[in-house]
Amino acid sequence: MMAEHAEKKIDVAYVANLARLYLTEQEEKMFQKQLNDIVKYVAEIEQVDVDGVEPTAHAHGVQNVFRRDEEKKGLDRESVLNNAPANDGEQFLVPKIM
């Protein structure tokens, strides 16, 4: 199976063209080597026996932690409005934006 993946080659010039990237010859060679190394590594990983291993998205279980929904006293309107640059005693006054 490993030989099967070793034969696969990603054409860096083709992918760069699709992405509208312009690579120098040196960059093309560097990326070609890196992509070939990645393909080889993926082939190695595929050799790992994962029978009986349940697929997961996280290393450990994920669950929501909810707190009780309890009513709490909020800020009083007067003290909040006193911090505003302008108010009419009931709400903030802001400039009209059109």
Write down the secondary-structure element order: HHHH
What kind of assembly state do the chains in view correspond to? single chain
Structural class: mainly alpha
Return residue spans where pLDDT drops below 50 for at least 5 consecutive residues.
none
Structural shape: elongated
Q: Helical element count?
A: 4
Number of strands: 0
Task: Give me the Rg, rounded.
Answer: 30 Å
Q: How many strands, what sense, and barrel or not for the largest sheet?
A: none
Gap from first CA to last CA: 66 Å
- Tell me the β content: under 5%
Helix content class? 40-55%
Mean pLDDT: 87
Précis, in short:
With 98 residues, the protein is an all-alpha fold.
Write structural notes for this entry.
The chain is an all-alpha fold. Helices cover 41% and strands 0% of the residues. The chain is built from 4 helices and no strands. The protein has helices spanning 2-6, 12-18, 25-46, 77-82.
Q: Which helices and strands occur, and which strands form pairs?
A:
Blueprint: H1 2-6, H2 12-18, H3 25-46, H4 77-82
